[in-house]
Specification:
With about 325 residues, the protein is α+β, with helices and mostly antiparallel strands. The protein folds into 2 domains: about 140 residues, 2-Layer Sandwich (60s Ribosomal Protein L30, Chain: A), CATH 3.30.1330.10; about 160 residues, Alpha-Beta Complex (Phosphoribosyl-aminoimidazole Synthetase, Chain A, domain 2), CATH 3.90.650.10. Strands 8-10-7-11-9-12-13 form a 7-stranded mixed β-sheet. It has a 4-stranded mixed β-sheet with strand order 3-6-4-5. The C terminus is likely disordered. Bound molecules: magnesium ion (MG). Magnesium ion binds next to helix 2.
Length: about 325
């Protein structure tokens, strides 16, 4: 199957066309319009088979995740997603695989009203690169660098589920069928916190998405903002399927060090703390206060019930 027919057959969906797309798939380039008063926000992420997901992952999940991780980066800036483009390297033009992949891609892009505006396919090892574009009102981008001493540190959702799911897939851990289904869903079909991100741009001082693991990602904020922080590990949000499957100390290790959560980690001032719950009420996600920032330059301390806490695990190890 030729490149042209792959793009035409599987990815040119006429179902929803955004009005800001003048020319979509089918010409040499896409032509789009950025609304007045908004900045264009762009991010790109590549997933490599055998590195970022196990080789036997279902095609629908691969497509979902490739889009979701990019929308998560947009969410971390407070941006509203608009368009994506796809570069797909495939060992062979397997029609069944392509059909499942395009189904996964259409499901998540339709859910977030995002339009695929261009694509390229080549023959090679299975690799998916997505570039995502979004909008943000001028000068309102949430960054890593504006956290302040005294800010409260919050995280959405729960942490560590994807890390445990990965260990279940690779046979190092086990869980009940129901817990397994939930945890694998968290690994294969992560939820980008798009609505929470746009809500937070008026409230938070800084924000990042948790992709490498809480410890690594919190350190990015501390380094960029020249702050320190104390995290109370006994406050970390842990899902019930996680609590049912492993000891607390292991659950905390997953929550602190495993990656692939795609939750938002953010800091807010004392004055904004009261507004947070109301603001997040319609974003379908809870947020948990897990610590506080201080003036100790780039130093991160962990505490369990106010006693110092140590773990011997650093950032996320990609599948290999
Ligand atoms: Mg990120």
């Amino acid at each position: 199957m030729k490149e042209f027919s792959i793009i035409e057959s599987f990815f040119k969906s006429g179902r929803h066309q955004r009005r800001d797309v003048e020319i979509g798939i089918g010409d040499d380039c896409a032509v789009t319009n950025v609304p007045e008063g908004q900045s264009l926000v762009v991010t790109t992420d590549t997933l490599v088979s055998g590195v970022h997901f196990p080789e036997d992952t279902e095609a629908r999940a691969i497509a979902h995740k490739a889009i979701a991780v990019n929308l998560s980066d947009l969410a971390a800036m407070g941006a509203e997603p608009a368009w994506v483009s796809l570069s797909l390297s495939l060992p062979e033009a397997d029609e069944e695989w392509l059909s499942d992949f395009s189904r996964g891609l259409h499901e998540i892009t339709e859910y977030y009203t995002v339009q695929l505006i261009g694509g390229d396919t080549v023959k090679g090892p299975l690799t998916i690169t997505i570039t995502a574009h979004g909008f943000i009102p001028k000068e309102q981008a949430l960054t890593r660098s504006k956290a302040r001493p005294g800010d409260w540190l919050y995280v959405t959702g729960t942490l560590g589920d994807a890390g445990l799911a990965f260990d279940i897939i690779t046979g190092r851990k086990d869980a009940t069928p129901a817990d397994k289904e939930y945890l694998l869903g968290r690994l294969n079909y992560p939820t980008p916190r798009v609505l929470a991100g746009t809500t937070l741009r008026r409230i938070a001082h800084s924000c990042i998405d948790v992709s490498d693991g809480l410890l690594s990602d919190v350190q990015h904020i501390l380094n960029a903002s020249n702050c320190g922080a104390v995290i109370h590990v006994d406050k970390l949000p842990i899902s019930k399927p996680m609590m049912d499957s492993v000891e607390l100390s292991e659950a905390l290790r997953y929550a602190l060090a495993a990656g692939d959560d795609y939750e938002l980690l953010f800091t807010i001032s004392e004055e904004q703390k009261g507004n947070l719950e109301v603001a997040l009420a319609n974003s379908n996600v809870s947020a948990t206060c897990i610590g506080q920032l201080n003036g100790m330059s780039e130093k991160l301390e962990l505490k369990f019930e106010d006693e110092p806490y140590h773990i011997n695990a650093s950032g996320y190890q990609h599948f290999a």
